[in-house]
Q: What sequence folds into this?
């Protein structure tokens, strides 16, 4: 009898090029690159006189730096312009497919991978961006890498790796109209902490995970890195295959059928070993919001901001004090009703069509509060076009939202979209770190519906009051 | 410095001042936890297309006020810590983004060793690619070393012996043998992998037959 394996074990074994002393060489099927973490890798190749082994296995797009305003005018920020030009030139020099800013397919790298069918079940996918974990939604082994590793993959199509441990996260219960994949992800991070997944690959399972759409699964896997795990993945099923069929870069015809047969063998075997596991029941879950400066600082929207004195661990107690001070919040007070200045709907976490539909369903027939500046940044040109076909843009614009061009935007504020000091934002993005959305800016992570509710209420609000 | 040589600086003994990253309620100090990559090097400095020159922007928001003046209380702005080679910190150091600009900024400042109870996975890997040694020690020992560092005592870190010497005390640490070897030898890991090109060729030949749906 063969050993029972997890899906991670199976993908690992299928991609093993060599086992060396104390490390393994893993084959990489798909490589995504963007403008921020690739220029030094290309420079390294040039200086060592090395080539790109498989230009066709890398796909490039500019997303972090791009303006989300009028694309017909030149980029104002000189450094951003140089970085985007450098990506374009590097791709031309090494023969890599580059999706230009003027192309409707342009968007956030983790949104366009699945959209184009570049992301496939059972594949290994890397990108110089921590949210590469997103692609795990398709049952791919996908994770972020540094620039030196980007260079390594470009040169060799392999990565030096040590195998991580298996972590089973089972989520059970029924999703409601007020609870989204974002709430599931935040509840996992709240439960295990931002270092809870360190050293592991997480496999999500359970009926709540199965019931998620592909978009929802991407949100869940996207936030895996915020729990510290190398990757998060979900076994592929019919929903996965239906999503990918006929995508431009997905296999076609006979090869597609064979691929599906193979992908059906990927789910973890009964009795497979997990080094760690937790079970989360979402039946009584409230919509969640972060109060602090770490994604693990999660509370129910009807909960109170924690008090440092209730925490025993000295380091955590001091961290809470620092966060409260940074966030301008009072310990023990309700989080609901906290006045906000900005709302950001978008990012690789929540910039897909389903996220925009969810937010629009709350926004419809309502107005953005007078003191709030609210923007919607679709995750890609194709998401934007689809939303416009469905009339979602009009719903947002009529309510007082700004409707922008695709990119990472205010998730990390590398472009012009950012918070000013002390501005408070309800954001569908992934990090509430100090300064993340702009120096001195205060970020509350929420689901798209919760962000929409906050925009209308002018404060952190309970989406259940709007449904 | 040339990018390719940048990876190849051999790591031997590091002796120098260690800067403890602390959080405090005024009475008791503890090590600062969850020092993320946005703290280490904020996004506005990621627009560079070079690896060097980021040291002056290390910990930018903790280190400088809005006008660009040094914030007096921040540890690296205190005279004896301006030339620190070692950082002492709390749990989950380097969490957040995959930006290698974080180790580049630390290295450019002069940091060669980071001691924390735990590190985020991607950051940890990125350190070894840049000649920085991340050491895992218990929070208790790090506090003890921090107390000594705050008195101005130097630390000596020996990678070969896996020993930290401080104030006549000795602390041993664990490290994965391959990571140790990469640092000690200053190996160019791409060059090493490319020596196995025949193995990669052979993997690809098999994969083209067995897993043709991944061939583009």
A:
């Amino acid at each position: 009898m063969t050993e029972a394996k997890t899906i991670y074990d199976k993908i690992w074994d299928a991609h093993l090029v060599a086992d060396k002393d104390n490390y393994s060489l893993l084959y990489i099927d798909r490589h995504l690159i963007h403008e921020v973490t690739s220029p030094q890798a290309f420079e390294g190749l040039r200086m060592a006189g090395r080539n790109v082994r498989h230009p066709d296995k890398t796909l490039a797009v500019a997303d972090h730096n791009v303006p989300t305003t009028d694309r017909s005018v030149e980029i104002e920020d000189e450094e951003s312009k140089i970085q985007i030009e450098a990506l374009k030139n590097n791709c031309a020099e090494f023969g890599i497919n580059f999706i230009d800013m003027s192309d409707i397919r342009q968007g956030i790298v983790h949104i366009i991978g699945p959209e184009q069918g570049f992301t496939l079940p059972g594949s290994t996918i890397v990108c110089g961006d921590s949210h590469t974990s997103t692609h795990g939604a398709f049952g791919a082994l996908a994770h972020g890498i540094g620039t030196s590793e980007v260079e390594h993959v470009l040169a060799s199509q392999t990565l030096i790796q040590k195998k991580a441990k298996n972590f089973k996260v089972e989520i059970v219960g029924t999703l409601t109209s007020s609870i989204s994949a974002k709430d599931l992800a935040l509840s996992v991070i709240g439960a295990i902490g931002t270092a809870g997944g360190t050293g592991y690959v997480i496999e999500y399972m359970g009926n709540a995970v199965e019931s998620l759409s592909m978009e929802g699964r991407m949100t869940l896997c996207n936030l895996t890195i915020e729990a510290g795990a190398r990757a998060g993945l979900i076994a592929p099923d019919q929903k996965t295959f239906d999503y990918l069929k006929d995508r431009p870069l997905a296999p076609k015809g006979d090869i597609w059928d064979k691929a599906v047969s193979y992908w059906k063998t990927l789910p973890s075997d009964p009795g497979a070993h997990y080094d760690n596991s937790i079970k989360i029941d979402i039946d009584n879950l409230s919509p969640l919001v972060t109060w602090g400066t770490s994604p693990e600082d999660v509370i129910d929207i009807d909960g109170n901001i924690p008090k440092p004195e209730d925490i025993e661990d000295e380091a955590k107690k001091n961290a809470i004090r620092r966060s409260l001070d940074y966030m301008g919040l009072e310990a023990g007070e309700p989080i609901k009703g906290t006045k906000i200045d900005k709302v950001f709907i978008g990012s690789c976490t929540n910039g897909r069509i389903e996220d925009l539909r969810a937010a629009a369903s709350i926004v419809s027939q309502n107005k953005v509060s007078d003191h709030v500046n609210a923007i919607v940044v679709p995750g890609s040109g194709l998401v934007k076009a689809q939303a416009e076909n469905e009339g979602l843009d009009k719903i947002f614009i009529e309510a007082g939202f700004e409707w922008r061009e695709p990119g990472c935007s205010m998730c990390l504020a590398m472009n012009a979209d950012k918070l000013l000091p002390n501005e408070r934002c309800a954001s569908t993005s992934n990090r509430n770190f100090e300064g993340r959305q702009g120096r001195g800016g205060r970020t509350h992570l929420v689901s798209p519906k919760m962000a929409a509710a906050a925009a209308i209420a002018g404060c952190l609000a309970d989406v259940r009051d709007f449904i | 410095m040339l990018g390719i040589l940048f990876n190849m600086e051999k790591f031997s003994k590091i002796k120098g001042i260690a800067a403890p990253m602390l959080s405090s309620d005024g009475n008791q100090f503890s090590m600062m936890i969850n020092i993320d990559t946005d703290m280490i090097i904020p996004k506005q400095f990621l627009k560079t297309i070079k690896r060097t020159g980021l040291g002056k922007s290390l910990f930018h928001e903790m280190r400088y006020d809005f006008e660009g003046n040094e914030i007096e209380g921040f540890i690296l702005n205190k005279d004896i810590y301006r030339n620190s080679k070692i950082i002492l910190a709390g749990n989950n150091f380097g969490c957040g983004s995959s930006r290698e600009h974080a180790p580049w900024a630390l290295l450019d400042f002069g940091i060669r060793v980071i001691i924390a109870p735990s590190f985020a996975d991607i950051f940890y890997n990125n350190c070894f690619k840049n000649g920085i040694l991340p050491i895992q020690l218990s929070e208790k020992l790090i506090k003890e070393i921090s107390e000594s560092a705050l008195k101005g005592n130097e630390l000596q870190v020996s990678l070969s012996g896996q020993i930290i010497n401080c104030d006549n005390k000795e602390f041993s640490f664990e490290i994965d043998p391959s990571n140790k070897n990469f640092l000690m030898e200053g190996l160019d890991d791409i060059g090493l992998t490319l020596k196995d090109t025949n193995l990669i060729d052979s993997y690809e030949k098999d994969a083209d037959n067995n897993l043709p749906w991944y061939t583009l």
